[in-house]
Write a structure and sequence with these properties.
RINT1_Tip20, 71% helix, elongated
Length: 734
């Protein structure tokens, strides 16, 4: 125990001169040295560091014990302890100097890590924003890409389907059967030979044909792959239709190959200025195969209950080739008027034969859909207008423009139509025939507007020529112009009742109603068919016709008035009575009037058509009636002989001039006829009538008295004036 105390006091005594802190450090170091000597495992046996002396005591007890000889080990132990102490002190000093640096480095590293973290967070925020922006930008691409991927999957599915179809076709002997039938029939003689020949194997071949045809019908083809109209852009507005049935497609394959071989690429047969070559070829192919399709294929379709018409299905497949060809060629010749016009002409001829001869329905895709495409259609309208105006110039400048080609055929030449007018209306009729099969009403209405513009242009040209002939209003050319105007107006009125134009009128009504371009009254008139699509043109032509007729009537009326000057001055008061004359004869002063009238009537009857001449003489008679009544009858007084002579001149000479044109011409001279009746009443009747009119003016009895003597047109006052013009009254003064 003494050793233990000595050992315990050694370090403490040597350190008494040090400060309390230093002493404390030394004690702690001594404890550490002892702990190092005792061993960690021995210290670990205690409960806390407060039991260190007991551990040291136990250590000495173990090393020295009660054997004093063991004290020899103390020097070695002290040496070991001192060495251990020095090592521990060095470690403590090293640790005490390095720990702050490590802490400082750790703090520095932590700060740097924090800065890096903040930078990373900023970058992460920016990157997050960029990613969101990129995702938003890329979203449509992703959708498109997704759609394309879906299309790729769909195409892959179709390709797989077509692969199966190809394998099935390889297993089929359908094309071999067609080959045995010498399909396709390139010439008409070949088709006739196949139809007439009956080889021994024919029943077997036809049986195989039927079997294989029915099997192919059961295969469902994809509409997306085989609907032919979808091979052309949507701008052509082709009607929706199902694909050509598979067996017919296979039958069309060799013809499609021939068509593309000859009419595409650099082949000599592919000439853009010769559309008639491929159009005629397709028509010939349709004709060559019609009999076979009707007699051999159609019964198979009927047998399986199919509604497909074999011939039309075959034709539809070939027409698609034409549509593709037109769609490719038209842009190349769109601005060459001659080539484009030639193409349109050939296409229209093709369409006419296709529909009329081969019964191709207008509801199927056809060439008119290609011509209806906006750019092509507007060009068509422009070219149609250009060539129509050129033809109008030509027809009006022709030497035979104003003569009728039927002038020597009386029965045919009733309208006395000049050649220019008939040619013009034929031109309009041809234009109608060219556009009537257009697929939409809107396109037809645009052509109708073109026709109306042409009519108006022709009317203006006729007006210009008419003004040049105004001084010779009874001349041949003037009358020819009038006949032309009347003919055009009459034909347009007839067309207005045509079913085609009535349908266009209904379509126009719908357009006008949508655009509010007409008043409610005009819309009502169109809807009730009171007016027509040509009414504006007809009204202008009728106005021109009336003006020209009026000018002619005025011209003849002036001549008649000049010729009637002597007749107006006739001495009606001093003419002998009828009893004083053996035979009544025409007044010599009336001869110029009647001769002039007769000559002009004959002239215009020959130069004007019947309907115009009828209007003319009726207008002239109306003016003559008033003129004779006012300027001759009311301007004179009449004795008995004068009244009788007037009546004879009128009823036996003037009126009969018009008996060739009507049964009772006197009814058109009501004023003159009734005036003659009043002037020629016998004395008693005249006195009685005069008394009635004076005693009961305006009364029914007066009207009845007038009607009784044949007066219906003249008013009571006029009759009283006429009675006062009579000079042959009895001496009673009445």
């Amino acid at each position: 125990m003494l050793l233990a105390g000595h050992i315990g006091e050694g370090p403490a005594t040597s350190c008494r001169s040090e400060s309390g802190d230093e002493r404390k450090d030394v004690e702690e170091k001594s404890d550490i040295n002892i702990a190092a000597l005792v061993g960690n495992e021995q210290i670990g046996e205690g409960t806390d560091n407060g039991d260190l002396p007991s551990y040291v005591s136990a250590f000495i007890e173990k090393e020295v014990g009660n054997d004093l000889k063991s004290l020899k080990k103390l020097d070695k132990l002290i040496e070991q302890m001192t060495e251990s102490k020095m090592q521990l002190e060095e470690q403590v000093l090293t640790i005490s100097s390095e720990i702050p640096k490590r802490i400082q480095n750790a703090l520095k590293n932590a700060e740097e890590s924090k800065q890096f973290l903040n930078q990373f967070l900023e970058k992460e925020t920016h990157l997050f924003s960029s990613i969101n922006s990129h995702l938003q930008t890329a979203q449509p691409w992703m959708e498109d890409l997704g759609a394309m991927i879906n299309q790729i999957h769909e195409i892959e599915r179709h390709l797989a389907y077509l692969t199966w179809i190809s394998q099935i076709e390889e297993l089929s002997d359908f094309e071999e059967v067609l080959a045995q039938l010498h399909w396709p029939f390139i010439t008409s003689s070949q088709s006739q030979t196949v139809g007439l020949s009956r080889p021994a194997s024919a029943p077997e071949i036809h049986s195989n044909l039927e079997t294989l045809f029915c099997q192919l019908l059961k295969l469902q083809t994809s509409d997306e792959l085989f609907t032919e109209p979808k091979q052309l852009p949507e701008k052509y507005s082709l009607p929706a239709s199902s694909s050509v049935i598979l067996p017919i497609q296979i039958m069309l394959t060799p013809l499609q190959k021939r068509f593309r071989y000859h009419f595409r690429g650099n082949r000599q047969t592919n000439v853009i200025s010769k559309p008639e070559w491929y159009l005629a070829q397709v028509l010939m192919w349709i004709g060559n195969h019609t009999q076979f399709l009707d007699e051999k294929i159609q019964p198979i379709l009927d047998k399986v209950g199919s509604s497909v018409n074999a011939r039309l299905e075959f034709s539809r497949g070939l027409v698609i080739l034409v549509l593709e060809k037109l769609a490719a060629d038209i842009p190349c010749l769109l601005y060459d008027d001659n080539l484009f016009c030639h193409l349109v002409d050939e296409v229209l001829l093709f369409e006419r034969e296709l529909h009329s001869v081969h019964g191709y329905p207008g509801t199927f895709a056809n060439c008119m859909h290609i011509l209806s495409e906006e750019t092509c259609f507007q060009r068509w309208l422009t070219v149609e207008r250009k060539f129509a105006l050129q033809k109008m110039d030509s027809m009006l400048s022709s030497e035979a423009a104003w003569t009728s080609q039927y002038k020597d055929i009386t029965d045919v030449d009733e309208m006395k139509v000049p050649d220019c007018a008939e040619t013009f209306m034929t031109l309009l009729l041809v234009i109608t025939d060219r556009y009537k099969n257009l697929p939409t009403a809107s396109r037809k209405l645009q052509f109708l507007e073109l026709q109306k513009d042409l009519v108006d242009d022709f009317r203006i040209r006729l007006t210009q020529v008419m003004k040049e002939e105004t001084r010779a209003s009874l001349g041949f050319r003037y009358c020819a112009i009038l006949n032309a105007v009347n003919y055009i107006s009459t034909v347009l009125a007839d067309w207005a009742d045509n079913v085609f134009f009535l349908q266009l009128q209904q379509a126009a009504l719908e357009v006008f109603a949508e655009n509010n371009t007409l008043s409610k009254l005009q819309l009502g008139q169109l809807a009730s068919m009171e007016s027509s699509v040509f009414d504006d043109m007809i009204n202008l032509l009728e106005r021109l016709k009336h003006d020209m007729l009026t000018r002619q009537v005025d011209h003849v009326f002036r001549e008649v008035k000049d010729a009637a000057k002597l007749y107006r001055k006739e001495r009606w008061l001093s003419l002998p009575s009828q009893s004083e004359q053996a035979v009544m004869s025409l007044s010599s002063s009336a001869c110029p009037l009647l001769l002039t009238l007769r000559d002009r009537l004959l002239q215009l009857e020959q130069q004007l058509c019947f309907s115009l001449f009828k209007i003319f003489w009726q207008m002239l008679v109306e003016k003559l009636d008033i003129y004779i009544y006012q300027e001759i009858i009311l301007a004179n007084h009449f004795n008995e002989g004068g009244a009788a002579q007037l009546q004879f001149d009128m009823t036996r000479n003037l009126f009969p001039l018009f008996s060739h044109y009507c049964k009772r011409p006197e009814n058109y001279f009501k004023h003159v006829k009734e005036a003659c009746i009043v002037l020629n009443l016998n004395i008693g009747s005249a006195l009685l009538l005069k008394d009635v009119l004076q005693s009961a003016p305006g009364e029914p009895s007066a009207t009845a008295a007038l009607n009784e003597v044949g007066i219906y047109k003249l008013a009571q006052q006029d009759v009283e004036i006429l009675l006062n013009l009579r000079t042959h009254w009895p001496n009673t003064g009445k």
